[in-house]
Write a structure and sequence with these properties.
Elements: E1 19-25, E2 29-32, H1 39-46, E3 55-57, H2 68-78, H3 86-92, H4 107-123, H5 126-131, E4 137-142, E5 145-149, H6 167-181, E6 186-189, E7 196-200, E8 203-207, E9 222-228, E10 231-237, H7 241-250, H8 257-263
Parallel strand pairs: 1-4, 2-3, 5-6, 6-8
Antiparallel strand pairs: 2-9, 4-5, 7-8, 9-10
Length: 278
């Protein structure tokens, strides 16, 4: 989950991530992340009819929305390859907050406590059933290229990585990842809430975006990506955002994200690096 980067301090360091290799994949692969407890968006995504063996989820089943348990059940039934987001990792640990490292008393911290408590109350001990065997990273080959799938950063599951970050940061991430996976041609990530692709030399960093919250562009549609032989494409996901917002209101989740579903604008731009602000 990633809409409050300025409050982030870093939380879950990974020195030996659990990695699952999917082997060779072919054809068009659906890439998506951040269901964020938004059942209406998740149902719209699953309604595309993509078989689970041709889809990959980059983590954060739960966050701002009203329907954490229903989203966890939907994704478990779907059964596509997935990695842990920081929210699932924290639920597995029985933690009291989402693991984004928000400073105590900030708006980030106050809002996160509300929605994380809501998600935790719905999920409870079921977290072990849903995610105990979920890896931290995935690897696979597609065509002539090899990819790693991570959630946030290589050492920190909840690191925010933005399209405006310098090349040196991406290069350092690639180096750290390859120390665990061997050579790769690309990384597929999630967490920050914005879909993008960056080319760093011959390698690609791909963020598939999230389906549970719009990417602060003034439109309510969410984002996902597809990987095909001719490269990566980003897509808009239309869904019943009005119903998702109403469900949040009924649940008492009214810190501004219910409005963001309708307007396509995040409650605050403090999260964003200056080059990405409107």
């Amino acid at each position: 989950m990633g809409l409050h980067a300025p409050c982030f301090k870093g939380n879950r360091q990974m020195t030996a991530p659990r990695i699952r290799d999917l082997g060779p994949l072919s054809g068009t692969i659906l890439l998506f992340g951040g269901a964020y407890s938004n059942l209406q968006a998740l149902d719209a995504l699953l309604g595309l009819g993509v078989p689970p063996e041709r889809a990959i989820f980059t983590g954060d089943v739960v966050a701002y929305g009203a329907d954490a348990l229903a989203c966890a059940e939907r994704l478990a039934d779907y059964g596509c390859p997935a990695i842990l987001g920081n929210c699932e990792a924290q639920l597995l640990a029985g933690a009291s907050e989402c693991g984004c490292g928000f400073e105590s008393g900030t708006a980030c911290d106050i809002a996160a406590k509300t929605w994380f408590e809501h998600a935790s109350n719905q999920i409870g001990p079921r977290a072990q059933r849903f995610w105990a065997d979920t890896p931290d990273w995935l690897t696979f080959t597609h065509g002539a290229k090899r990819y790693a799938v991570i959630h946030g950063g290589a050492r920190d599951i909840a690191r925010f990585i933005w399209p405006s970050d310098p090349d040196e940061m991406f290069e350092a991430e690639f180096t750290t990842i390859e120390a665990q996976t061997g050579p790769i041609d690309g990384v597929i990530a999630g967490h920050c809430g914005i879909a993008f692709e960056r080319r760093i030399g011959a390698r690609h960093w791909i963020n598939a975006g999230v389906i549970g919250m719009p990417p602060h562009d003034g439109r309510p549609e969410a984002r996902y990506a597809t990987l095909a032989d001719d490269g990566i494409r980003f897509h808009s996901l239309s869904y019943d955002f009005k119903a998702a917002a109403r469900a949040m209101e009924v649940a008492g989740l009214t810190q501004g994200y219910e409005t963001a579903l309708r307007t396509g604008l995040w409650p605050s731009e403090d999260v964003l690096p200056r080059p990405l602000r409107r």
